[in-house]
Amino acid sequence: MAVTGAAAPQGPVAQTIDLLGDRLTLAILREAFVDHVRRFSQWIDRTGAPPAMLTARLNALVEAGVLERQPQHSGHDRYDYLMTELGIATWEILASIWTWQREWSPEGRLQPELIHVDCGHRGPPALMCLHCGAVVGPRDAHLELDRESLALATGSGRRRSTRNSPSVSRADLQFTEVMEAIGDRWSALVTGVALTGVRRFGEFQAILKISPTTLTERLGRLSEMQILTRSEHGNGREYVLTPRGRALFPIFAFLLSWTQVAHPDALPLGPQIRHRACDSWLLPALRCRGCDARLERTSVHFEPLPFRT
């Protein structure tokens, strides 16, 4: 798979990664979903974030249409921040991140538990294809990339390093482990391309048009976090997804799906996932492992652990 071309202006997928691939943003949304937090002072108390940083993240979420400001009845230029329909649509991304954290991260035991209200099942859901109803894993799908879509994904815009970056203070809000995979655009793209089956250093470089130094650093970090494992095979280095890495697939599926909701008129959107079994573009959803029903936002409850402070 060969992809050529220079970087382009920031596209929808890049905007999604930059917006949602941020630990404080995830903490803001987590508190909004789990405990219905809507006020600046509440997020300050719960995350320990510096006020200026929290203001910047809330402004970005408002600008993106995820939150909306509503004046408080008390006045004094104070606002509540309420979830929009687009904001509510992030719940599947968050549920997938919490599921991954619970299984693969030391922080996982502190993440909310998903409960299907209709049948009472507690625990992680399965990823399903809405077109055919089948459960979908990374080996059942193919991420299709072309020159234009990758140029959009790697285009200019804000980039962060997941290391040495300001963080929220509470342990259960850190999202430290998953940030290595989605916390900056290059890490997310390397992980996403690995999910297509790409393994060799030269293939990653040819597809992403990434500098050898940057690619070496990202592959090293992903290997250190046991998302990839490095091996010497034949005449070159190979980086193979571990079970921990393959388990990230639902997060990426919902990030791409949410991008289509957030940018309905943008063409092309960027990388797309095709479900091999039904040969359709993947329209992901969550399915209850207890009763096999599709999970809707209104049919699930996020239960915080009782010892949260």
Molecular structure report:
It is a single chain. The chain is α+β, with helices and mostly antiparallel strands. It has a single domain, classed as Arc Repressor Mutant, subunit A (Orthogonal Bundle). It is built from 13 helices and eleven strands. The strands form five sheets. It has a three-stranded antiparallel β-sheet with strand order 5-8-9, with no helix packed on it. A two-stranded antiparallel ribbon has the order 1-2. Helix 1 packs across helix 13, helix 6 (91-104) packs antiparallel against helix 13 (249-262) and helix 9 crosses helix 11. It starts with 11 loop residues before the first helix and ends in a 6-residue tail after the last strand.
Roughly how much helix do the residues carry, as a percent range?
A: 40-55%
Strand content: 15-25%
**What is the residue-averaged pLDDT?**
85
Estimate nothing, just give the exact number of structural domains.
1
Task: Give the topology, please.
Layout: H1 12-20, H2 23-35, H3 40-47, H4 51-63, E1 67-71, E2 79-83, H5 85-88, H6 91-104, E3 113-116, E4 126-129, E5 141-144, H7 147-153, H8 176-182, H9 185-194, H10 201-208, H11 212-224, E6 228-233, E7 236-241, H12 243-246, H13 249-262, E8 272-275, E9 280-281, E10 284-287, E11 300-303
Antiparallel strand pairs: 1-2, 3-11, 4-10, 5-8, 6-7, 8-9
Helix pairs in contact: 1-13, 6-13, 9-11
Task: Give me some keywords for this one.
309 residues, alpha+beta, Arc Repressor Mutant, subunit A, two-stranded antiparallel ribbon, 13 helices, 11 strands, disordered N terminus
